[in-house]
Write a structure and sequence with these properties.
The protein is an alpha/beta fold. The chain has one domain: 3-Layer(aba) Sandwich (UDP-N-acetylmuramoyl-L-alanine:D-glutamate ligase), CATH 3.40.1190. It contains six helices and 14 strands. The two termini are 19 Å apart.
Length: 250
C-alpha cells in the first residue's frame, strides 16, 4: 500500500526554557532558553505519521520554509509565545507532475498557506477515488461529490456549517457519509454518532494531534474498510501523541 500526502508544510520548532520572573521593563515573562527540538510540521507531520504506521508515503509540498517557533516553560509545559515566520507560500501545487494513479490513497492536508486552491483540491478529488481531505479553508465550491472523507475540527465546522447543512438543520446527504468532525477531548462525530476519545492521564501538547488523527484514520480505513473501526483507531493514536511533548508521531 502506498499513500501520497499533498499540502502545506512547515518546520515546527519548540524552544524549552526557564521562566521564573517578570521583565522589569514591561509586564512580560523573561524566558531563558535551555533546549530546542524541531521536526517537520503540517503536511510533513501527516506524512511522518503515515510512515510511522508502516505505510509507504510520498509528499507533494512547498519547498520554501514556513517556521512555527514555540516558546515553552519547562516546569509547567505552558506555551508562552508562538512566532510564525514566512507564514505564506508562493509556491503552488503542480498537478501536471502529480501521477495520482501510483497511489492507493491520497491525503490532502491543506493549512491554507497558499500551496492549494479550492480548484486544486477539486481536481485531486476528481482524479482519485480515495481522497482524505482536511482543509482550513471555508469551502465555497461543491467538492463533496468527489472526496471520500473530509475531516475538520469543531471550530472549523462552526465557521462553515451552513455549507454542509440543508435548510440549516440536517446534514446534506452529500456530506452524511463523508464529514468527520473532531471534538478534542470528546472524540469525533460521524453520521450523527459520537466516537469517544481515549482518556489521557495528562495532556502534554495538543500540537499535531489533528495530523495524527487524519493519518491514522486514512491508513486504518484503507485496511479495515470500516469507518467506525478506523475512527476508534484514530482517536487512540491521537491520545498517544497528546501525552507527549511537542509534535510527535504515533
Amino acid at each position: 500500500m502506498k499513500f501520497l500526502v499533498i499540502g502545506d508544510s512547515c518546520t515546527d520548532v519548540f524552544n524549552y526554557g526557564d521562566c521564573d520572573r517578570i521583565c522589569p521593563e514591561a509586564p512580560v515573562p523573561v524566558f531563558n532558553p535551555v533546549e530546542a527540538a524541531s521536526n517537520g510540521g503540517m503536511a510533513k507531520n501527516v506524512q511522518a505519521n503515515v510512515l510511522a504506521l508502516g505505510v509507504e508515503c510520498d509528499i507533494a509540498t512547498n519547498r520554501n520554509e514556513i517556521v512555527k517557533s514555540r516558546y515553552v516553560d519547562l516546569k509547567t509545559n505552558q506555551m508562552l509565545l508562538r512566532v510564525d515566520d514566512n507564514d505564506h507560500t508562493v509556491e503552488r501545487f503542480n498537478k501536471e507532475k502529480a501521477n495520482l494513479s501510483l497511489y492507493d490513497a491520497v491525503i490532502v492536508s491543506d493549512y491554507n498557506k497558499g500551496f492549494l486552491t479550492n480548484l486544486d483540491i477539486s481536481w485531486i478529488c476528481g482524479h482519485h477515488d480515495y481522497t482524505f481531505v482536511h482543509s482550513k479553508k471555508n469551502f465555497i465550491l461543491p467538492l463533496g461529490h468527489d472526496m471520500r472523507f473530509f475531516v475538520i475540527n469543531q471550530q472549523e465546522y462552526e465557521k462553515s456549517k451552513d455549507h454542509y447543512k440543508k435548510d440549516n438543520e440536517e446534514l446534506d446527504n452529500i456530506w452524511m457519509d463523508k464529514l468527520i468532525v473532531t471534538q478534542g477531548e470528546n472524540g469525533c462525530r460521524y453520521q450523527k454518532e459520537l466516537h469517544p476519545a481515549f482518556k489521557v492521564r495528562e495532556v502534554q501538547d495538543l500540537s499535531g494531534a489533528g495530523d495524527t488523527f487524519l493519518a491514522a484514520f486514512a491508513v486504518n480505513v484503507m485496511t479495515s474498510k470500516s469507518p467506525s473501526r478506523a475512527l476508534d483507531f484514530a482517536n487512540k493514536c491521537a491520545s498517544q501523541v497528546v501525552a507527549k511533548r511537542g509534535v510527535t508521531t504515533v
